[in-house]
Amino acid sequence: MTTMTIAKAINSGLRRSLESDEKSLLIGEDIGRLGGVYRITDGLLADFGTRRVIDSPLAESGIIGTCIGMALRGYRPVAEIQFDGFVFPGFNQITTQLAKMRARSEGRLTVPVVIRIPYGGGIGSVEHHSESPEALFAHTAGLRIITPSNAQDAYWMIQQAIECEDPVIVFEPKRRYWLKGEVDTERPALDAFKAQVVREGHHATIVAYGPLVPVALAAADAAEEDGYSVEVVDLRSISPIDFDTVVASVEKTGRLIVAHEAPTFGGIGGEIASRVSERAFLSLEAPVLRVGGFHMPYPVAKVEEDYLPDIDKLLEALDRLFTY
Amino acid sequence: MATTSQASPASDGLMTPDAAAADGPLIQLLDERGELHADERFSAYVADVDADELRSIYRDMALTRRFDVEATALQRQGQLALWVPCRGQEAAQIGSGRATRPGDYIFPTYREHGVAWTRQVDFAEMLRIFRGVSNGGWDPRENNFHMYTMVLAAQVPHATGYAMGINHDQSDWDTERRAAEGDAVVAYFGDGSSSEGDVHESMVFAASFDAPIVFFCQNNQWAISVPFEVQSKVPLASRAAGYGFEGLRVDGNDVLACLAVTRYALEHARRGDGPVFIEAVTYRMSAHTTADDPTKYRASEEELSWEPKDPLLRLEAYLRSSGAGDDAFFEQVAADADEMAAGVRAKAFTFPDPVLADSFKNVYAEAHPLIREESEWFRQYEAGFADNHPGGAR
């Protein structure tokens, strides 16, 4: 066990993948000499060279598109998109090409491309630097989408993403990059596409992922002072969603809140609420509540604290949940 | 299929009205009359092409055209949802396709039926997409000929990435070995696609990484109803200089020139000297697709002006004048083409209808719970009809 930040954990996970599979390589803007705008690839160019760590031209569609081509040639490219709001020039390549290559070829071609996207708000930045577009990608069949919330997951999930034969988007919670945690370098049994109960409870369940997992845990701690035992499920994988773990928790607690930073409308929370109502309707003591962003473009930094789901918003939702 | 005519003497007067010729000279080895011209730089690249090979090239072009006619007819008869004709572009396609080696990987758009043929893709297999039984059709790995891509220009960065992968594979090879054994990539796209950002981004990547790729643009003058002048104010080949590599403007209706220039470009690319851009100036003699109506946007005079430049006519003229092809040869090719077309038609009717349940199999490479859940639901749903529909098939 060693202690490291999420940023360092991803860096170490990438390093381990580069060491273990010579076909893996990294490509993105500024990932080489600079080590990425968040320094996630820091030091990798020096150790693996320009063939494995490629500073690319500034062109997101080109990055994703060439990754597809390299994967067709037998490589396992890992693309870095600098910020969530900059992924859209590459949206066409991701949704019409990357996601569908295997289906279009009737299973003959696989494109094991990984796309890393720092996402989410709370960093006080300017527009297009704080978005949570995961639902836009989750709606597209053929992609897998994961998001770690702690260093241990960050270290292992990136390696599992690179090993996966399917395209994987890794949404990295950028405001948690400096969150420290213990990392076990012995391979865990938990796979990247499974959810995990990170706090046991029996009165209500909060499902969260990525940057909101620490918020959900803090809210559960606060609720405990009021006598409520709240279970927290870290979803970890947004596509596929591990409904078995979510439903099992709801069957135990009878109440569910889904929390994410993305707008609630059309979001992952609605999908989870709907599935839970189908599979665990008779276990529910209250409607499933969603705590998320409003139906607006991500607001300016001075008011983002009002926009983001926080402990108080989760406690307010818990209060509503217990009025039923 | 025309088997007799030489280019009309009137073609002299028809050489200038098209915008393409007005934009400057084209690399040309075989002119509209079927007369050979020596080119200081490129003739050497087809010096080995003898009478036998020329006949074989003509045959490929004629078969491609006959296939195109048959597929168009199949669409008109309601047997295909759509067809994308390539009439007029046979020289650009057969010439460039024949310049490749088996290890080279081709990324086509959706009109490269002639290129596919040079890569041993069966004509009938190309109909699977348009008959609605497959989104891919053939196995891309079998002949290193990628699936058609419907989203304009999306395949061009794939081609570039593939070429970057070749660079990685061959990074410790010297120039000689690369030239002898090295692989390269050809990315096909049209004049309309040249306006897409993906083409621009690809050229930036390819230049920056010296990727062994040839960008082969068939400028057929029309992006559905929008003329070339709306895509570019300059010949497309001249854009290459802006990316830092060579652009060549070739007569796309001259199969020898297309062969020579593509051989040169591939040699250049596989040696490690980076990409080459080829603009093959040609003309789409029929509709964009069978859903299109060219009478709404272009004058018949323009179409007529290109008829004497038909790539098959000029090669036929040369074969006849050089004694390499006589009536018997052309009649035999026509008969073979008819037989091929009949075979394609018959085979198209044998494609089994796909089963939706199979579509679940290829969404992901690894097990996926949502796929498992939905496919199981669908299986049970279909089983519910078993009494009325033996075997559950409907």
Class from secondary-structure proportions of chain A: alpha/beta
What is the overall pLDDT average of chain A? 97
Work out the helix count of chain A.
12
Q: Tally the structural domains of chain B.
A: 2
Q: How many individual domains of chain A?
A: 2
End-to-end gap of chain A: 44 Å
Order of helices and strands of chain B: HHHEHHHHHEHEEEHHEHEHHHHH
Question: Uncertain regions of chain A: pLDDT < 50 for 5+ in a row?
Answer: none
- The general outline of chain B is globular
Strand content of chain A: 15-25%
**Overall pLDDT of chain B:** 92
CA-based gyration radius of chain A: 19 Å
CATH architecture of the largest domain in chain B: 3-Layer(aba) Sandwich
Structure annotation, total helices of chain B: 17
Give the number of DSSP strands of chain B.
7
Cofactor (chain A): thiamine diphosphate
Protein name (chain A): 3-methyl-2-oxobutanoate dehydrogenase (2-methylpropanoyl-transferring)
GO molecular function (chain A): branched-chain 2-oxo acid dehydrogenase activity; magnesium ion binding
Organism (chain A): Zhihengliuella halotolerans
What does the secondary structure layout of this molecule look like, with pairings?
The complex is a heterodimer of chains A (324) and B (394).
Chain A (H helix, E strand, L loop, with lengths): L1 E4 H15 L3 E5 L15 H5 L4 E3 L4 H13 L3 E5 L10 H8 L2 H4 L9 E6 L14 H5 L5 E3 L4 H13 L4 E6 L6 E4 L12 E4 L4 E5 L4 H13 L4 E5 L2 E3 L3 H11 L2 E8 L4 H12 L9 E5 L10 H4 L3 H11 L3
Parallel strand pairs in A: 2-3, 2-4, 4-5, 5-7, 6-7, 10-11, 10-13, 13-14
Antiparallel strand pairs in A: 1-8, 6-12, 9-11
Helix pairs in contact in A: 1-7, 3-4, 8-12, 9-10
Chain B lengths: L18 H4 L28 H26 L13 H9 L6 E3 L5 H6 L8 H5 L8 H4 L11 H15 L5 H7 L3 E6 L6 H12 L4 E7 L2 E2 L2 E2 H4 L4 H8 L2 E6 L3 H19 L2 E6 L18 H7 L4 H11 L5 H22 L7 H4 L9 H15 L11
Parallel strand pairs in B: 1-2, 2-3, 3-7, 6-7
Antiparallel strand pairs in B: 4-5
Helix pairs in contact in B: 2-3, 2-14, 2-15, 3-12, 7-9, 8-12
